[in-house]
Amino acid sequence: MQLKTIQTKRAAVRYYESGEGWPLVFLHGAGGLDMDLGFLDALAQKFHVYAPLVPGYGDSEECEELRDMLDFTLHTWDVVERLGLKDPILTGFSMGGMIASEMAAIAPNDVSRLALIAPAGLWMDQHPIPDIFAMLPYQLPDYLFYDVEAGAKIMSAGSNMSDPKFLQAFLVQNARQLGAAGKILFPIPERGLASRLYRIKAKTMLIWGEGDKLVPPVYAKAFQQGIAGAEVIMIPRAGHVVPFEKPAEVIGAIARLQ
Amino acid sequence: MRFTWFNLMPWPYLPDDFREKNRSVWVDIDPNLFDPVKGHQVYNNYLDLLEYAGTLGFDGIGVNEHHQNAYGLMPSPNLIAASLARRTDDVALVVLGASIALYNPPLRVAEEFAMLDCISGGRLVAGFPVGTSMDTNYCYGTIPGLTREKYREAHELIKRAWAAREPFAFNGRYTKLRYVNPWPKPIQQPHPPIHIPGGGSIETFDFCIDNTYSYSYLSFGGYIRGQALMQGYWDRVAERNAPDTSPYRAGFAQTICVGETDAEAERLYAKHVSYFYNRCLHVYPGFADAPGYRTIKTIQKGILSQYAPQTMFQELPWKELVDNGSVIAGSPETVTQRMEDLIKKLRVGNIFCLMQIGDMPKDKCMHSTRLFAEKVMPKLRHLFPEYSDDGRFWCKPLAKRAKPGSLPVESELDSPVGAER
Rounded to whole angstroms, how far apart are CA atoms B82 and B80? Predict the structure, then answer.
């Protein structure tokens, strides 16, 4: 997996690239790409994977010009354009799924295959999505993982909140990453996608962890109702971070788009 | 020196087991803990106390804005200030402040502040806070990463609206108005003095320095802990080559309790101080600082919210609160000595005296307030004599002001009552 940079009109965008075959763009969730690098490596065995970082994530520069959903959507189209890709398989996880959905809705003739992995973007009052912006680090594993204990270990590895230096670095990263994510997810991760879903023409896979406690599986049905012909793949023994917990199953589901 | 008697308006009926049974005093506090009938009495008590302070020689009486918060019952500080404008005479009305980014359109603040300035005869000291993350982001839903941009735009609109002599169009990102033309305009021209409460953001330091606004740190941590932050401000004043270092460029909020003796102060007030520090400041750390609310530059400077987990108030006894300066308490002599220490160490010309503390009853609060006004304040007035004529950061009331409630005698009319005129 190589980390590279391309320049769009608005931002210097960092992206991972690896593999051969049909181009596939993967858009990460609000947590960033760190935990999904293994998944991307495996995905790159089948596809030519491009995984751009939202400005502000990882070591990339923030972009103050990205303020709302349309900005994010068009920015990501700019990235696809600069990568020189035509009709890549568009995949997105959680927040990335929200962006991918918007991209497919705004330019339905440019996306023929779409894989949405536990995407955000819809809101049902009966099934409120928990507020990740008010969670403390130790509370996150409960919502993210199927195996909460193992997840907590992974997330806390190498972290020491009582070390002021570590804490400061953590707060800076959080401010950069979740500060950017908040533009489209805060205070409620919904920006009108429901009224645009009907425009999507792509063959669509909706991939979900059966035990997702952040964006509960009931949302899979809502997406399915909005996107004509969308297929739901429910993966057992998996939580929200299904690409991390069940990479092979997720890749298998994406491969069905070929 | 300028002293403002400040009332946060805390709810005085939080149960003893509040900390154990509730995760936060703010944002998602149990709504069943509020009782509107008790609220009637609470609001009226607090208004009485503000008015009382207004008769004792304080320079100002102060109110502020919080939402969904049991230690601050003023979602609308302007409502309280309006009520005070009619019932007080020559004291400044310090609204510290109205969260300008939360009003839609923010022009509302220009209008309401102008109304307050007119009603009070130019007694308004206006505050423009960005607002805490709890209020601004979690209660009022502003996107953290856009809060400051929205704030700056609101500020520009208000300033232009006050200054304009003809209607103008305002094409902002967050507010678009074809005809900006607020009626009324403030008496104080070009605008009432502006104070900015902040929590250590570098951007807010610069904003105050660049606009000649007074920076105030409304902390509950006391002056010893507040010293690093205020030093950061003064360093910045020097770095930015501000034309002067007038102490009136800065203000500080301090919890103060005065008794006849040190022992009396503890006996009378310890319980209420404990209520405030141990119940009212019980804020869930997840609401302290929404990611994106604080800028990277500020975090890198190591300035954290006073509500952040590492500075959260633990169950604190009286002695510790007094020793660490969170509370300045004791006899008039003790309080005078510590206040002088505060004023000199922080170099602050504006003191916001937090004297209605937690569930303190009215009579105790009056006792403490009167002792401060009579026996402490006069001994501190002489400080910073070289800046005694610096009026840039304080209101300039009209010399001749209306007398509220004065009605003419109907019988003196030329024609009988009810007749066509």
Answer: 5
Q: Nearest chain B Cα to A187, which residue?
A: B141
All structural domains of chain A: 2-255 (3.40.50.1820)
| Count of C-beta atoms within a 10 Å radius of residue B262 | 15
Decide: A53 and A13 in contact? Cβ < 8 Å: yes
Q: What angle do CA A179, A211, A152 make, to 5 degrees?
A: 55
Give the residue from A61, A160, A161, A186 with the most B CB atoms within 10 Å of its CB, the best one to mutate: A186
Rg of chain A's alpha carbons, rounded to an integer? Answer: 17
Pairing of strands A89-93, A48-52: unpaired
- Pick from B138, B149, B292: which is nearest to A175 by CB? B292
Phi, psi (rounded to 5 degrees) for B121 = 75, 35
Given a contact cutoff of 8 angstroms between Cβ atoms, the answer to whether B190 and B162 are in contact is yes
How many H-runs (helices) and E-runs (strands) does chain A carry?
Answer: 9, 8
Residues B260 and B371: beta-carbon distance below 8 Å? yes
Measured torsion, CA atoms of residues B131, B134, B135, B141, in degrees rounded to the nearest 10: 110
Q: pLDDT digits over B352-401, tens only?
A: 999 999 999 999 999 999 999 999 999 999 999 999 999 999 999 999 99
Compare all CA atoms of chain B with the CA of A178 and give the residue at the minimum distance: B291
- For chain A, the helix, strand and coil percentages under 3-state DSSP, each to the nearest 5: 40, 20, 40
Phi-psi region of A12 (alpha: psi -120 to 50; beta: other; left: phi over 0): beta
pLDDT of residue B209: 97
Q: CB of A160 within 8 Å of any CB in chain B?
A: no
Question: To the nearest whole angstrom, how far is the Cα of B309 from the nearest Cα of chain A?
Answer: 10
The separation between CA B221 and the C-alpha centre of its own chain, rounded to angstroms, equals 15
The size of chain A, in residues, is: 258
pTM higher than 0.80 for the full model? yes
Give the model confidence (pLDDT) of B289-314 as tens digits: 999 999 888 888 776 655 554 444 56
CA distance B276 to B336: 23
Q: What is the pLDDT along chain B (421 residues), one digit of tens a residue?
A: 999 999 999 999 999 999 999 999 999 999 999 999 999 999 999 999 999 999 999 999 999 999 999 999 999 999 999 999 999 999 999 999 999 999 999 999 999 999 999 999 999 999 999 999 999 999 999 999 999 999 999 999 999 999 999 999 999 999 999 999 999 999 999 999 999 998 888 889 999 999 999 999 998 889 999 999 999 999 999 999 999 999 999 999 999 999 999 999 999 999 999 999 999 999 999 999 999 999 888 888 776 655 554 444 567 889 999 999 999 999 999 999 999 999 999 999 999 999 999 999 999 999 999 999 999 999 999 999 999 999 999 999 999 999 999 999 887 777 655 555 4
Residue among A167, A174, A188 minimizing CB distance to B291: A174
Phi-psi bin for A215: left (phi > 0), alpha (psi -120 to 50), beta?
beta
Indicate the residue type of A103.
Answer: M
Task: Break chain B into its structural domains and give their ranges.
Answer: 2-412
Q: Which residue has the tokens 């009070």?
A: B120
Residue B245 near residue B282, CB atoms below 8 Å: no
Instruction: Write down the CATH number for the domain with range B2-412.
Output: 3.20.20.30
Q: Find the angle CA(B292)-CA(B297)-CA(B301) to the nearest 5 degrees.
A: 115
- The token pair at B97 is 């402040």
Tokens representing residue A185 in the block: 């997810």
Tokens of A251: 């890749």
**B287 phi/psi in degrees, rounded to 5:** -100, 0
Do the beta carbons of residue B289 and residue B133 sit within 8 Å? yes
